[in-house]
C-alpha cells in the first residue's frame, strides 16, 4: 500500500489518527488490503502528509489493538491474517450510515432536492 492512498483532511473535525484508522479499516473490509499487505512505515505516512509521526503511530497501534494489523519483524506493519477480508455489501453500507445521516441532515437544512444531492455524490464518486 502506498502512503498517498490515504486522504488526510487536516481541517476535518475528525482527528487525523481517526481518519487513518477509518480509511485503513474500510480498505481492509473492502478487500483493497488483503491479509499480508505491507503498510507504509510511520515515517513514510508522516512525511507524505506532513503530519506528526506520533499521530500515525497512534493510528497503527489502535489498528493493531483491533487485530486488523500485526507487527512483523523486518517488514513493519502488515494486514493481519485473522482479518475477515471482504465484508458484505450490507455491512459496508452500514459503515457509511453515520456519514449518510449527516449528509442527509445537511442537505435538508440547505433545502436541496434529493436528486441533485445524489447527482453530486455520483459525480464525486466518479472523480475520485
From TrEMBL:
Residues 14-82 form the HTH gntR-type domain. Keywords: DNA-binding, Transcription, Transcription regulation. Pfam families: GntR. GO terms for molecular function: DNA binding; DNA-binding transcription factor activity. The keyword Transcription applies. This is GntR family transcriptional regulator.
Amino acid at each position: 500500500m502506498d502512503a498517498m492512498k490515504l486522504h488526510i483532511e487536516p481541517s476535518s473535525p475528525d482527528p487525523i489518527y481517526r481518519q487513518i484508522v477509518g480509511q485503513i479499516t474500510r480498505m481492509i473490509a473492502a478487500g483493497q488490503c488483503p491479509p499480508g499487505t505491507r503498510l507504509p512505515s510511520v515515517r513514510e505516512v508522516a512525511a507524505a502528509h506532513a503530519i506528526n509521526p506520533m499521530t500515525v503511530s497512534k493510528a497503527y497501534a489502535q489498528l493493531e489493538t483491533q487485530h486488523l494489523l500485526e507487527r512483523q519483524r523486518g517488514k513493519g506493519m502488515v494486514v493481519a491474517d485473522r482479518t475477515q477480508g471482504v465484508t458484505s455489501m450490507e455491512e459496508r453500507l452500514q459503515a457509511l450510515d453515520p456519514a449518510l445521516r449527516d449528509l442527509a441532515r445537511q442537505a435538508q437544512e440547505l433545502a436541496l432536492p434529493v436528486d441533485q444531492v445524489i447527482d453530486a455524490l455520483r459525480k464525486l464518486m466518479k472523480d475520485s
